[in-house]
Sequence to fold (142 residues):
Amino acid sequence: MSFASKTPVMSGAAPAIYPSGSEVVVQRAQITAVTADVASNNIGAFLILPAGCVPVGVHIDADAAVSVDVGIVDNAETAVSTAAADGGAAWASALAANGTSMSFTKAMARVTPASTDRKVGVKVTTAGTAGVVGMTLAYRSA
Fold:
């Protein structure tokens, strides 16, 4: 099930940021998660990885303990992609986000640019409690 709470980017209230050259772009989004959002196996998209871009880092933070997989989320928000073009696996698995967690993994390094925008999000692997959950994504043009 997808999160009931949506970030401003995913709800359309804020734009995704597109790089204009070779610079690294950093975008942040957060939600005030309700208990249902952070139930096991729920998935939430936080930000957009623009067409033609690849990730260079991701930072997850949360008020309370919750464990998540991080990566490209399918359009239906039912799974973190394991497609080769999306890195072949979750960028981070069972990432504990109580406080902060950062990641740059082999899967993230293997993401290839796509011709369409892709959603970046989390899948809850160990349920948490309601509170703020945030994502900071760094990316660049490929």
Q: What stands out?
A: The chain has two helices and eight strands. The longest strand covers residues 131-141. The helical segments are 8-11, 106-109. The mean pLDDT is 91.
